[in-house]
């Protein structure tokens, strides 16, 4: 295998990610906060794509652009999670529930949870890797459309996170439901824009002549499945119904879960 052989690239990325997650798993043991795994996923993804940009074939300006897009997205999200859920914070209720469910097997389960993040780093690095390897001169119209979509998505997600954090900082909003800004139109606007972000690489991939555009679809399809069916909305809403009660039940009846739209009458 050569240095730029796809299998070699992915195996190297996985090995580095797995080792990094072992270190974070050990660090998490005294911290008792599994949000560290989410922070590790964000920063790990940025580092893997940065490495790709230095070794894969492809037009240099395009590699730099895609690397910058992932780096800004991941650094923003990782830093938000670090400040909002980890730094001098108690563990999120979803993770506390997992600890109870895992019981005596907790340390081993947490180890594999961190290793799942390592695999996810490699999985989600595939769409930007495909876009980077386009050898054509920059930039195709579809790439510019993809960049515009990226700007909208990353800005929207950052705005949603900021609005929710600002709402929660006010002591009189304790145990209340945020319906301000983007949260008026969707119960999970941050998840919606996170999902939208991954479509930007799908659109950019349409300009690639390499015949592997379909690989870029794993980003939005996997993220959509995770947010809608696994770790996103189901976990969040179970916890919020417990802590917010009837007010959140009313919010659910009137406001879309995912796609932003005007509220319905209660």
Largest sheet: none
| Helical coverage, percent range | over 70%
Write down the domain tally: 2
What is the tally of beta strands?
0
Unreliable sequence segments: none
What is the overall silhouette? globular
Question: What is the average per-residue confidence, as pLDDT, rounded to a whole number?
Answer: 94
What fraction of residues sit in β-strands? under 5%
Radius of gyration: 19 Å
**Series of secondary-structure elements, N-terminal to C-terminal:** HHHHHHHHHH
Number of helices: 10
Ends: how far apart? 61 Å
Name the structural class: mainly alpha
Structure write-up:
The chain is mainly alpha-helical. It has 2 domains: 1-134, no CATH class; 139-266, no CATH class. It is 72% helix and 0% strand. It has 10 helices and no strands. It has helices at residues 6-31, 35-55, 60-86, 93-102, 106-132, 141-169, 189-205, 218-230, 233-244, 246-254. Helix 2 (35-55) packs antiparallel against helix 3 (60-86) and helix 6 runs antiparallel to helix 7 (189-205). The radius of gyration is 19 Å and the shape is globular. The mean pLDDT is 94.
């Amino acid at each position: 295998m050569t240095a730029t052989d796809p299998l070699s690239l992915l195996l190297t990325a996985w090995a580095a990610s797995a080792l990094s997650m072992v270190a974070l798993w050990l660090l998490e043991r005294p911290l008792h906060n599994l949000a560290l795994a989410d922070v590790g996923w964000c920063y790990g993804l940025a580092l893997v794509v940065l490495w790709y940009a230095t070794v894969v074939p492809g037009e240099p300006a395009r590699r730099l652009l895609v690397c910058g897009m992932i780096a800004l997205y991941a650094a923003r999200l990782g830093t938000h999670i670090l400040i909002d859920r980890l730094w001098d914070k108690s563990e999120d209720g979803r993770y506390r529930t997992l600890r109870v469910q895992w019981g005596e097997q907790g340390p081993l389960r947490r180890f594999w949870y961190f290793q799942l993040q390592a695999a996810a780093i490699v999985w989600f690095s595939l769409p930007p890797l495909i876009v980077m390897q386009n050898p054509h001169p920059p930039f195709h119209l579809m790439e510019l459309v993809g960049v515009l979509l990226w700007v909208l998505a990353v800005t929207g997600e950052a705005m949603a996170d900021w609005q929710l954090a600002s709402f929660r900082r006010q002591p009189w909003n304790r145990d209340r439901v945020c319906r301000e800004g983007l949260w008026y139109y969707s119960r999970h606007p941050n998840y919606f824009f996170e999902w939208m972000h991954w479509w930007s690489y799908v659109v950019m991939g349409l300009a690639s002549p390499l015949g592997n555009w379909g690989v870029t679809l794993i980003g939005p399809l996997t993220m959509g499945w995770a947010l809608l069916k696994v770790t996103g909305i189901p976990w969040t809403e179970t916890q919020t119904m417990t802590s917010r009660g009837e007010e959140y039940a009313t919010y659910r009846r009137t406001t879309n879960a995912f796609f932003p739209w005007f509220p319905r009458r209660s």
